[in-house]
Every structure is written in structure tokens, then in C-alpha cells.
Specification:
The protein is α+β, with helices and mostly antiparallel strands. The chain has helices at 2-10, 18-31, 83-90, 108-115, 148-182, 184-191, 215-221, 224-244, 269-296, 331-346, 354-360, and strands at residues 36-44, 50-58, 65-70, 94-97, 120-125, 135-140, 200-212, 248-253, 256-262, 304-320, 323-329, 350-353, 366-372, 375-382. The chain folds into 2 domains: 2-181, GAF domain (Beta-Lactamase, 2-Layer Sandwich), CATH 3.30.450.40; 196-382, Alpha-Beta Plaits (2-Layer Sandwich), CATH 3.30.70.1230.
């Protein structure tokens, strides 16, 4: 097994993609003479939807995959009585010959493994520095199962695998937190090193600003649980539509949302504006359906306005030296905000700037010319046909 350990230390640890590491690791273990048929390395994570990530590999595809277990899995029968619970409780290796199972005491997982033609199951603890206890399971289909020496070798090898997996797990958490709180594009910028105050770039983008109508009145009428439920419903409605059309929510501000649809090598200005408009229409359709459900339950409707504009913005870091915000700034953002405010005055829930409509090369219903605070000259404002 020394060749496998040397590979981990010298080459394996330098692989950027954890799935590549797991795939090549299993190849090395097989080359060393240990007939593993399955490998699974599971660890807890910080994620709004996922409680456990696991790298998995089987000898059928000979390629590693990533699996996610949703929150609540450790409070279910999938966990209670399982090898993982035993290892977490005792911090010791678990081993079970799959041809010697006891129906009264052994977990369903082991029977499932046996029914796949596997013969021996081994799970070892791999403690991380944060005091969590990830586990690695090795399963074989070899006749007679693992030898005592092979079990000892795999236990020893896990000590070398653990710190590498911990690095991948920490990176996964960092990326998840960035994706969750500032968005995937912005998070990628930060991870690539764009994280000092003033770091940024000028980009062109379709800009979206929206907020809920009469939110103050709703806040006074509803309790905090109902307000959080309303906000989450509304924001999920927007997020689903924005994601479908390749936009990114930069931030939620109270009951408002700031969204960008950037122009890049793959997305023209026209396409960015098309996406923004389609996402806005979809969000209104989504909220209409949601309101029908809310009415049936005696809940107040959710109404909101959206302003869409196209322009140049500075996309990057602003704030204090040690407390930054990754956002967009510039006159184009101000105009988008004025458009959204104007939806209340005009009674039109969706308003478009002339710069936005020019990118689409289409005719839109004209609403009027308006003075906007902080914006020089009257601005032509458009909307869409009622749908």
C-alpha cells in the first residue's frame, strides 16, 4: 500500500477536482491488490438543503460521483441502527460479513449490499480537525471478503485520505456559502481573488429591481412567522424564474430584490434583456398561481412591482476594509430603482426603460416621460401588454 500512500501525498493531493481524486484513488487501491467494489466517503456540511455530502465510487462505472443527503436524514431510519451511527457513536471501525447477517439486529443497508452480490462491508472513522467524524465505507464482492491484512491496510490508508477529503469538504462549504449568500457568479469572482475593497469591473447587464406592494401594512397586520413565510414564498417565486433564465439575485434588501442578467461572451445584450423580461413574466405567472392558493387558505395576496433597465455598472466590492459587499453600483442601478418606484405611481407592475427596450428591437406600450430623482432629463418609460 506504500505506492498508494505515496501517490496521495505527492500527486493525489494536488488534484483540483475531488471526484478525480476519488476515481484515481480507487484505481490505485485496486492496483495494490485490494478488491474493492464500492467506496463511499460521507461528511457533514453547511448547506441550506443538504446535510451530508458523500463521494461515491463503484466498480461498475469506475467513476466517482457526488451524492447529497437532505436535512433530516440523520433523524430517519436510514441512519438509526446503521453502520454510520455505530461508527459515530463508538469512533471505531465497523466490519460485517454480508453472508452472516442477522435479520433482527443488522441494518437494512447491509441486506441491500448483500443483495447486490457483495460479500464484506467495512466502515472506518476519518476524524476532521473540526471534531466532526466523517466515515469511509469499503465494500467488496470478492469471495471470502476482505482479509485481515486488507482491513488493516484500508484503516491505515484512511488516515492519509482524511486530510485530503477535509480540504475538499472545506472548499465545498466555502463555495456553498458564497453561492448561498452572494450568488454563484459573484461567489466565483470572490474565490478567484476579487475580494479587496475597490476590486471590480465594468460590465453591461440587464438590471432588475423589485419589491412587494404595501409591505409595511402587511408587516403590521401579520405576525413574524407569517411575514417570514410570505417573504420566503415571494423570494422563491422570483428565484425560480431568475434561475430558469440565467440571472443572478445579487441581494435581498428587506422585501426588495436586486437581480442582474450580465452580458458576456455567451450572452448578448439582446439575450440578456430577453432573459430578464421572460423571467419577470414568469415571476408574475408564478405569483398568480401562488395567490390562488393563498386565497383558498384565507391568506393575503402578494403583489409586487418590477423595474427593468439595461446599462453599464461597476460589478465588485464596496464597503469597509473588513466588511465588504459584492454588488453593482452606478447610475444604471439608480435608474432601475426609480423605475421600480414608478410602478406604484403608474399602477403598472412591470416597467421598462427605453435603454432596455432598444436592446429588444420590439415595440412596447408607451407609458410616458417621467422625471426621476437624481436622473438627468425626462425618461421614456414602457410596459408590456397585459397578459
Amino acid at each position: 500500500m506504500q505506492d498508494v500512500k505515496d501517490w496521495i501525498i505527492k500527486e493525489g493531493r494536488l488534484l483540483e477536482n475531488p471526484l478525480d481524486f476519488i476515481t484515481l484513488l480507487c484505481d490505485k487501491i485496486l492496483e495494490a491488490g485490494i478488491p474493492i467494489s464500492r467506496l463511499r466517503i460521507g461528511f457533514r456540511t453547511i448547506h441550506p438543503q443538504i446535510d451530508i455530502w458523500a463521494f461515491t465510487w463503484t466498480d461498475e462505472g469506475r467513476k466517482a460521483d457526488l451524492w447529497g443527503g437532505e436535512h433530516g436524514i440523520r433523524n430517519s431510519d436510514k441512519y438509526f441502527g446503521s453502520p454510520a451511527e455505530w461508527v459515530h457513536t463508538h469512533n471505531k471501525t465497523f466490519r460485517r460479513r454480508l453472508d452472516e447477517l442477522n435479520e433482527e439486529t443488522d441494518h437494512l443497508l447491509l441486506f441491500e449490499q448483500r443483495d447486490l452480490g457483495l460479500t464484506d462491508y467495512l466502515m472506518v472513522p476519518m476524524p476532521f480537525t473540526d471534531e466532526t467524524l466523517p466515515v469511509a465505507s469499503f465494500v467488496t464482492a470478492a469471495e471470502g471478503g476482505f482479509t485481515d491484512q486488507q482491513i488493516k491496510d484500508l484503516e491505515d490508508l484512511s488516515l492519509y485520505i482524511s486530510p485530503i477529503v477535509e480540504i475538499y469538504a472545506t472548499q465545498k462549504v466555502a463555495l456553498t456559502l458564497l453561492d448561498t449568500y452572494i450568488g454563484h457568479r459573484s461567489g466565483s469572482k470572490v474565490m478567484s481573488g476579487l475580494m479587496q475593497r475597490g476590486d471590480g469591473e465594468v460590465i453591461e447587464a440587464a438590471l432588475w429591481l423589485s419589491d412587494i406592494r404595501e409591505f409595511t401594512a402587511l408587516s403590521e397586520k401579520l405576525n413574524h412567522t407569517e411575514i417570514f413565510s410570505l417573504l420566503n414564498t415571494y423570494f422563491q417565486c422570483l428565484a425560480d424564474a431568475v434561475k430558469d433564465y440565467d440571472g443572478e439575485i445579487l441581494k435581498f434588501i428587506g422585501d426588495a430584490a436586486l437581480v442582474i442578467f450580465p452580458v458576456d461572451q455567451e450572452t448578448s445584450a439582446e439575450k440578456a434583456c430577453q432573459n430578464a423580461l421572460k423571467a419577470a413574466k414568469q415571476s408574475f405567472t408564478n405569483i398568480h398561481d401562488i395567490n390562488l392558493e393563498r386565497q383558498a387558505r384565507g391568506k393575503p395576496d402578494i403583489h409586487f412591482g418590477v423595474g427593468l433597465h439595461f446599462g453599464r455598472v461597476v460589478y465588485g466590492n464596496v464597503g469597509a476594509l473588513d466588511r465588504l459587499d459584492f454588488t453593482v453600483t452606478g447610475p444604471a442601478v439608480n435608474l432601475t430603482a426609480r423605475l421600480e418606484s414608478l410602478t406604484k405611481e403608474t399602477g403598472k407592475p412591470l416597467l421598462l426603460s427605453s435603454d432596455f427596450t432598444k436592446q429588444l428591437k420590439s415595440d412596447f406600450p408607451y407609458v410616458g416621460d417621467y422625471d426621476m430623482k437624481g436622473i438627468e432629463g425626462k425618461q421614456k418609460v414602457f410596459t408590456i401588454e397585459d397578459e
